[in-house]
Amino acid sequence: MTTSEKSKIVQYLNEAHATEVGLIRVLQEQIAMTPRGAYRSALEKHLRETRSHADRVAARRSELESGGNPIGTIVGLAQDAVGQALALAKAPLDLVRGSGGEEKVLKNAKDACATEALEIATYISLEELARALGDEQTADLAAAIRADEEAMLERIQDQLPALTRAVVAADIKGNGSYDITKTGAADAARDAVEETKEAARSAGDAAKSTARQARRVPGVARAEGAAKGAVASEEDLAIPGYDSLNADEIIERLSGLSQIDLAKIDAYERREIGRKTVLERISSLRGDEPWPGYDDMNAQDVVERLRDADDALAGSVRQYERAHKGRTTVLRAAERERTHA
């Protein structure tokens, strides 16, 4: 496959993975409020399947991205984060919808039908794309996962009549059957919260690690900063209270920032305020790091790297440090390397 063909397949895999990651959160919350029985068993089975789907899609994505574009990895992580955020935002609404427990479960089941239909459509498209581009491995994976989604949709549809009859019995005839003590809601909710926190920590660590690796490719750090700045709010900037500061106060704080933070502020300033003096100062500070990933390194790591540096690289470090971070230990090490070279 060509690079463009791989990129298109990775795009569709990113979409599928984000959907699976978001569905994990929704299923956890729905299981927590669903009484024991056939429908809850179906949800629990599908939660296990969904976790497996997410892992398999991520593995295939990694295989296609091996040695590829690191920006694509960052985009995939961003899509996963959005999928999780949307699922977590929806969870509290699931808890309060409907007049009683029976109706909450029914409405969740109807939503689940729509979600499964979306997933089926996602995997049909992925399979057809992969086959058209000669990627049989991805196509077979999509077909296998689609079969699981179709089976789950059928299971939910089979449960809808019984769930509807439970609503009639409870809301019309006054013969409710929903017993919160049988849902395991308290335990499930507590477990879901802890798992969500751990997932958020792990996802955050993974995202940071991936971003750091990506920044080792020339130009990626500045591209990342510009992309973040395009949607950044004041709170996202590396200078606290940015909007309340005048141009001179901002200019004083710019020299110690990384290339990512400078690019982010540049995009924000152009979008929100547009002060010429600030933009000119940022422009004077923006440029290539002495080596890709430099801004992510602490002083000791830079000093270690300088031990094998030639005079040209040591000079580049001195120039960059004087304009940006001004770390004494780094400047001294760069000077020693220049002297010894």
Automatic annotation (TrEMBL):
Q: Which Pfam families match?
A: DUF892
What the entry lists under Gene3D superfamilies is as follows: 1.20.1260.10
Tell me the segments the record calls region Disordered: 196-218
The entry's protein name is Uncharacterized protein
